[in-house]
Automatic annotation (TrEMBL):
Transmembrane segments: 12-32, 38-58, 79-104, 110-132, 153-172, 184-205, 212-229, 235-253
Superkingdom of this protein's organism: Bacteria
A Pfam cross-reference name: Rce1-like
GO molecular function: metallopeptidase activity
PANTHER family named in the record: PROTEASE (PTHR35797:SF1), PROTEASE-RELATED (PTHR35797)
Hydrolase among keywords: yes
Transmembrane among keywords: yes
Organism: Dorea acetigenes
InterPro entries registered for this protein in UniProt: MmRce1-like (IPR042150), Rce1/LyrA-like_dom (IPR003675)
Residue ranges annotated for the CAAX prenyl protease 2/Lysostaphin resistance protein A-like domain, each copy included: 122-224
Keywords: Hydrolase, Membrane, Metalloprotease, Protease, Transmembrane, Transmembrane helix
Name under which the protein is recorded: CPBP family intramembrane metalloprotease
Length: 274
């Protein structure tokens, strides 16, 4: 029987992140009472777990290929300035639009929902970039995307990836969320929809450009606002609705583009034969 490397990786990543959250982050917070900056660094180390699990345990997940060949392939596509900027602007812009609509709904200015906290702004931005955006992508969009793409078509593969990535955060919803009452239900639903939708958008970019830099910036564009966000559940409901509109539209554009590409290829082949 052929080993199921994908299943092995997913189970291992879940076990590892739960162990790190409970024993490392839990000890740092509850036993050593670490200050916020130290806890942020601890969270970043945990966020990198999909990548160092993959690279340290490489022979258990991809024994027929070297790490270097894999990493080079993940960043082999050309990084073009406008698509790079657009990848960040897309997810960041959706979050800002959600906050704008939420501020209209509540009658309060947008900036009243931004809390810069006590950490210096450049350090906050740096720590946000070096957490999930740079720490998770090699595992999720590098390895896991390739494995799911071997099994399924674009949409099913993307949804499966999104759900795995989404529920990897399950324990964080419990220990690192302010929504512990009825709001926890729409918050979890929002996470499922939004994270899965972002995965679909990432995979469209990666299908076109084949460079994880795009998914890193899509991830960063999504994450950066939440470093400073102090909004209630209404914001997340609006965010969910926007992704439910934007993501299917992006899939339609992707499908139309793929159809035109195939039609052009068929046309070129017919000309060659003639």
């Amino acid at each position: 029987m052929k080993p199921n490397y994908l299943k092995k990786y997913i189970i291992s990543s879940y076990i590892l992140v739960w162990a790190l959250i409970i024993f490392v982050a839990g000890s740092a917070s509850l036993v050593f009472h670490a200050p916020p900056v130290i806890m942020w660094i601890v969270r970043n180390l945990i966020a990198w777990s999909p990548t160092y699990l993959l690279l340290i345990g490489w022979r258990h997940f991809r024994p027929d290929e070297t790490r270097m060949v894999f990493v080079k392939r993940c960043f082999s596509g050309k990084a073009e300035l406008l698509p790079i900027l657009f990848s960040f602007a897309l997810t960041f812009g959706i979050s800002v639009l959600s906050l704008f609509l939420y501020s209209i709904m509540t009658g309060k200015p947008m900036l009243s929902y931004i809390n810069l906290g006590t950490t210096a702004l450049p350090l906050s931005i740096f720590l946000s970039l070096t957490s999930g955006p740079t720490g998770e992508e090699l595992g999720w969009r590098g390895f896991m995307r390739e494995e799911f793409n071997k099994k399924y078509g674009f949409l099913k593969s993307s949804v499966c990836q999104g759900l795995v990535w989404c529920f990897w955060h399950t324990l964080l919803w419990v220990v690192d969320s302010e929504f512990t009452d009825w709001r926890a239900i729409p918050y979890v639903i929002s996470n499922i929809v939004v994270i899965t939708s972002i995965t679909v958008l990432m995979n469209i970019f990666l299908e076109w450009h084949n460079n994880l830099l795009y998914s890193v910036l899509l991830h960063f564009g999504f994450n950066i606002l939440y470093v400073f966000l102090d909004a209630d559940i209404g914001f997340f409901i609006i965010l969910t609705v926007l992704y439910l509109v934007i993501t299917p539209t992006a899939v339609l554009v992707r499908n139309k583009t793929a159809e035109r590409f195939l039609e052009n290829n068929d046309s070129e082949e017919r000309k060659i034969k003639e």
